[in-house]
Amino acid sequence: MDKTLEGVNMMMTSTDRFKCPPGIKVFNKIADFRQWRRSLLLDKKTLGYVPTMGALHQGHLSLVAAARKRCDHVALTVFVNPAQFAPTEDLGTYPRTLQKDLDLLASLGQGVASAVLVPQVEEMYPAGIELDVTKQKGTFVEVLGISNQLEGTTRPNFFRGVATVVSKFLNIVQPEEVFFGQKDIQQCFVIRDMIRDLHFPTKMHICPTVREESGLALSSRNVYLTPSQKEHALVLSRSLKHMESLYRAGTRDATTLVQAGTKLIQDERKKVQEDGEDWEIKLDYVSINSGKDLSELKGDIPSEDGCVISMAVYVGDTRLIDNLCLDVELAD
Ligand code: PAF
Fold it and tell me: What stretch or stretches form a coiled coil here (predicted)?
């Protein structure tokens, strides 16, 4: 096993070391979780599921609240999934805050989140897991086509890792309903197709992105930003809003909208340089994609499907993503 993974296993979360808030069951072993899940079935209670990598914030809590509205019980998984990190990415430093996560869930009140599964890497990946995909063994799930553009360009194996772990968890948790945040819109489309293609008997919901008052979309990775970076990071939501207002005013040419969004990012990049900061803003992509299948749009945006405008921007070393869905029917 490579060095990063050894470290990750040590950091991973034996629940013995954590104080479980009253009313929330915390499981380390899949078999124990399954036993609890079976008891709900026997009791004819429904289960809503929120998959997470921990470092919970209000965005996650809004998914838990949405799940609890529709289901008798809500379970979360907290698992920093190695398979969705490239060897160059932040698996080793990804925030791991289990005690805080459990306390946040408890703050929602008793009877909101019922259970949290915090499995070990070895149990999730019995054949082992290498970050280098050419060395991987075992079973992986790929959702072809839709995984390759946008995020897939910069992170070629990311959705393979996500689809693999989410399908494992859907098998383990067996929820009636599962809840994802629109913030990771491509992930939502990929998982929606996977649920359809693999006939998981689970209804999927896509819930709105939660933002700070400033407009910054909540993300577990926002903790990496310095105060000044956080200020400049507002350019993502600002340029999305600008593109939206052009669209609402009648601009339907995708290229024109992309150029308008890109200009605001480039202007912000210059501001950072002029301020003499020792970090940079770098645009990865601004894109307009079909609201039906995420195919990239260049010319006219067809009125029947709506569109997803999305972007990825490096603010210093932190890669941030954000999107708006315009006239798109999100599953519910
Ligand atoms: O969105 C996330 O936090 C992760 O990609 C997910 C869905 C929990 C899979 O690891």
Answer: none
Domains in the chain (CATH in brackets) are 3-207 (3.40.50.620), 220-325 (3.30.1300.10)
| Top-confidence residue, 10 or 40 | 40
Structure tokens at 328: 């798109």
CA 125 to chain CA mean position, Å: 20
Residue closest by Cα to atom 3 of ligand 1: 52
Check if 176 has its Cβ closer than 6 Å to any atom of ligand 1.
no
Distances from the Cα of 274 to the Cαs of 239, 267, 280, in angstroms? 20, 11, 11
Positions marked active-site: 60
What's the confidence (pLDDT) of residue 17?
73
- Ligand 1 pocket member 53 (CB < 6 A): yes
Cβ neighbours of residue 50 closer than 8 Å, sequence gap 6 or more: 60, 63, 64, 67, 74, 75, 76, 77, 178, 179
Measured by CA distance, the residue closest to atom 5 of ligand 1 is 162
Q: What are phi and psi of 217, to 5 degrees?
A: -70, 135
Residue pLDDT, tens place only, 280-292:
999 999 999 999 9
How far apart are the C-alpha atoms of 241 and 249, rounded to whole Å? 12
Q: Given the DSSP bridges, would you call strands 47-52 and 177-181 parallel, antiparallel or unpaired? A: parallel
Cα distances from 294 to residues 62, 145, 204, 306, in angstroms, run 25, 10, 18, 10
Looking at the CA of residue 191, tell me the nearest atom of ligand 1: 7
| Mutation test residue for ligand 1: of 50, 62, 184, the one with most atoms within 8 Å of CB | 184
Q: 116-157 pLDDT, tens per residue?
A: 999 999 999 999 999 999 999 999 999 999 999 999 999 999
166 Cβ below 6 A of ligand 1: yes
Q: What are phi and psi of 107, to 5 degrees?
A: -65, -15
pLDDT (average), residues 227-236:
98
